[in-house]
Amino acid sequence: MSLALILAPVFVLILLGATLNRWGFPGAGFWGPAEQLTYYVLFPALILTTLSEADLSQLAWKPLAVGLAAAITAITAVTLVTGTLTGCQGPKISSLVQGAIRMNTYVGLAVASWGFGAAGLAYAAVSIAIIVPLVNTLCVAVLAIYAEPTVGGSSSGLVRGLCSNPLILACIAGITLNASGYAIPPIADEVTRVLGRAALPLGLLAVGAALRAEAFRRLGWPEALASAAKLLVLPALASALLLLLGVEGQAFGIGIVFTALPTAPSSYLLAKQMGGDAESMAAMVTCQTLAAAITLPGWLTWINSF
User: Fold this and answer.
1) Is the pLDDT assigned to residue 120 strictly greater than 80?
2) How many domains would you assign to the chain?
3) Is there a contact between 149 and 275 (Cβ–Cβ < 8 Å)?
4) Torsion-angle region of residue 249: left (phi > 0), alpha (psi -120 to 50) or beta?
5) Residue 161 has pLDDT above 80, yes or no
6) Is residue 60 within 8 Å of residue 247, measured between CB atoms?
7) By the number of CB atoms within 10 A of the CB, which of 81, 137, 256, 257 ranks highest?
8) In whole numbers, what is the pLDDT of the chain averaged over residues?
9) What is the pLDDT at residue 60?
10) Which residue range forms the structural domain that includes residue 228?
11) CATH classification at residue 130
C-alpha cells in the first residue's frame, strides 16, 4: 500500500476533528466524553480482539521489547540531563520528558491497521503492552520528583491509575485469552469487534479536536528540542537497537512507527494534574502532531527500503 493511502486517512481525520471543533460542532461538551469513550471502551475492545486471536508464538516480541525499552529509557535520561544543564525549571523538565517519550497510540494503531494488516496490528498491540506501562511509570516518577508539589494529584494515585489503565488491562486480558486457548463467546466477540471498528476514526477525530493553535505561543527552543528528540532521535535510536538485536520485518516496522509517533494529548492532562508545565505540554502536543505529517512519511519510506 502506498504511503498516501496509509497516512492520508490518519491526518485527514485529525484535520477534520480540528475543523469540527473550531466550528463548534457537535458542541464543546462532545469531545471530552468522546475521547473518554475511545480510551476506556473502544480502543480496549480493539486491543482485546487483536491479541486474543494473534498467533503470539510467531511474534518476535522479546527483542522488540528490549529495544523499545532501552531506547525510551535512554531518551528519558538524556532529556533529564539536558533540561537540568540548560537551567530549565522542574515543571518544565517534567513536561519535556513527557514530550520526548510519550506517544499517541491512536495514531500508531491507525497506521498499523491500515498499513501493516492483521500481523502489524498484533505487533502494535504488543508494542502498547510494552510501551504504555514503561512510559507511564517513567513520566509519573519524573513528575513526582520535578513537578510543583503544591498541585493536586498524587503520584500514588496515578500509580493506581496505571494499574487500572484500560489499555494495559486489555493487553493482559487478550494475552490471557490467547494463552488459555479459550475464545470470546460469539455474541460478545461480535459486540467487541463492532466497538473496536469505531475506535480508530473516533480516536483520530478526538486527537484533532485537542489541537490548540494558540499553544504555539509557548513553543520555545526547549520544546522544539524535545519534539525533535521524540520525532527524530528516539526512532533513530530505536532503529539502531532493533537492528542490533536482529528485529526485522513487521516487528521492526511497527517498532519504528511507535517510537516516531507524536506525543499524546493526555500528556497535557497529566502535566496539569501533577504540577508540570501544562502550557509547554500543550505546545508540544500541537507542534508534534502537525510535524508528524512530515516526519512519519519519512520514517515509513525508510522502513519500506528494508
Assistant:
1) yes
2) 1
3) yes
4) left
5) no
6) yes
7) 257
8) 89
9) 82
10) 3-304
11) 1.20.1530.20
